[in-house]
Amino acid sequence: MAHSFDTDTEAAGLCAFVDASPSPFHACAEAGRMLEAAGFSHIVETEAFPTEPGRHYLIRGGALIAWSTETAGGPTTPFRVVGAHTDSPNLRIKPQPDLARAGWQLLGVELYRSQQRNTLRD
């Protein structure tokens, strides 16, 4: 079955995700909520992982991994890995964040990102 695509609905969903994700930790929590709504179960890293096929995810800090197994796996079972940067780029509060300029109280922030800047334009 094809997924119908409504630009306004998809844009509103993206805006809601961005609003709920002011940090990498929030982005992972929101993505986890979305995965649970799609039928995935949250796995706690310190507990035994399920051995039966299913849809699962785990979160460690600002990182999330999710997987879906439809059949019992083995050493020759193929799989796919998909990743995304939830931590870069984003704004981080500077170590000395209090600033005042022209009578305004400001919060000092800096852009946190990798040194590789052209990857999206290659």
Summarize the topology.
Layout (H helix, E strand, L loop, with lengths): L6 H13 L4 H14 L3 E2 L11 E7 L2 E7 L20 E12 L2 E9 L10
Parallel strand pairs: 1-2
Antiparallel strand pairs: 2-3, 4-5
How would you describe this structure to a colleague?
The chain is α+β, with helices and mostly antiparallel strands. Helix content is 22%, strand content 30%. The chain contains 2 helices and 5 strands; from the N terminus they run H-H-E-E-E-E-E. The protein has helices at 7-19, 24-37; strands spanning 41-42, 54-60, 63-69, 90-101, 104-112. The chain starts with 6 loop residues before the first helix and ends in a 10-residue tail after the last strand.
Give a summary of the structure in a few sentences.
With 122 residues, this protein is an alpha+beta fold. It has two helices and five strands, in the order H-H-E-E-E-E-E. The mean pLDDT is 82.
